[in-house]
Structure prediction request, 163 residues.
Amino acid sequence: MLDAFVATGVKSSVEECKINWGGVKMKLNKIDHVCIAVKDLEAAKKVWEPMLGKTGPDDVYVDEPEKINVARYHIGEVGFELMESTTPDGDVAKFIAKNGEGVMLISFNVDNTRAAIDELKAKEYPFIPDSRGEIARPFRACEFALIHPKKLNGVLTELIDDK
Prediction:
């Protein structure tokens, strides 16, 4: 199948890939991570770790503004996150109440989150603001933004400029 793409001139290198969203050309560097919403983080870790070939997460953190506990595993260059809500009114808890446990989010790494926001807003991509009304949200030494799932076939999509 890859040979068919190469024969048509499609670049196979992640660094050279560009995606065209409604006339917007934006460089996506890679899939940064995939998030799984879970009710019980410790129970989920026991289920996932044997399959992932891990004895524990590569990173664990609590994100108070986002109201989540996270166990992150590195699978090649892609992060795999198990997320548990810290409050009944958190987004993960709401997602689980509506959809059950499962894939909640896919995150794409971009060069600059704010530039990506500006580019996609101009094409009417709806973003989800945080509790302060801000679209670009701080996380460690980077920023991320969430595109509303109604625009992308029901998939909550994150853009993050983490290096």
Residues 28-160 form a domain with the 2,3-Dihydroxybiphenyl 1,2-Dioxygenase; domain 1 fold (CATH 3.10.180.10). Residues 1-18 have pLDDT under 50 and may be disordered. The radius of gyration is 17 Å.
